[in-house]
Design a protein that fits this description.
With about 160 residues, this protein is of the alpha/beta class. It has one domain: Metal-dependent hydrolases (TIM Barrel). The chain is built from 7 helices and 7 strands, in the order E-H-H-H-H-E-E-E-H-E-H-E-H-E. Helix content is about 35%, strand content about 15%. The strands form 2 sheets. A 5-stranded parallel sheet has the order 1-2-5-6-7. It has a two-stranded antiparallel sheet with strand order 3-4. The chain is globular. Helix 6 runs parallel beside helix 7 (about 145-150).
Length: about 160
């Protein structure tokens, strides 16, 4: 039995107009440097993101939560709600603060998967370093994430560039 192939964008963040106001100020220079589209800096209605997906031939995206400097864009719970509302378009990815005590990190992953229904944990090493160099992927702070994701059978996505 063969299936029709589909196109999945493996790393995307939905930024609403309200969410765009929450970006940490230190991120604005990054957005300018890489000429990010207004959808990142100003946000956009969800319908516009879905229309962009359709225009680009993208069937589904792994929709990710983002946390940095005490600010969420969007929160894990928002991602879970979007996945519930559009299960045919979104696969949910959440994030945890790996700098917490290991048992809290593991419990956080379990909550994201079992309670919110997310299917991937997103890690961004640069957020856990000194602002210039992030923690390497084999750092002990990630071990609770790797252990719990392996136990629960969910993916880990690591941004390395």
């Amino acid at each position: 039995m063969s299936r029709e192939p589909i196109t999945i964008d493996a790393w995307a963040t939905y930024v609403s107009p309200e969410g765009a106001k929450k970006w940490p100020p230190e991120f604005l220079h990054i957005f300018n440097k890489y000429r990010c589209p207004p959808s990142m800096t100003e946000g956009q209605p969800l319908e516009a993101m879905l229309a962009e997906m359709d225009a680009a031939g993208v069937d589904r995206i792994v929709l990710s939560a983002f946390f940095h400097g005490g600010q969420w864009v969007p929160r894990n719970e928002e991602v879970a709600a979007l996945v519930r509302d559009h299960p045919d378009r979104f696969i949910g990815a959440g994030t945890v603060n790996v700098m917490q005590k290991p048992m809290l990190v593991a419990a956080g992953v379990e909550h994201l998967v079992n309670d919110l229904g997310l299917r991937c944990i997103r890690l961004e090493p640069y957020m856990y370093g000194d602002g210039t160099v992030g923690l390497p992927p084999n750092d002990k702070h990630y071990w609770p994430v790797y252990m719990k994701c392996s136990e629960l059978g969910v993916a880990v996505a690591i941004q390395v560039g």
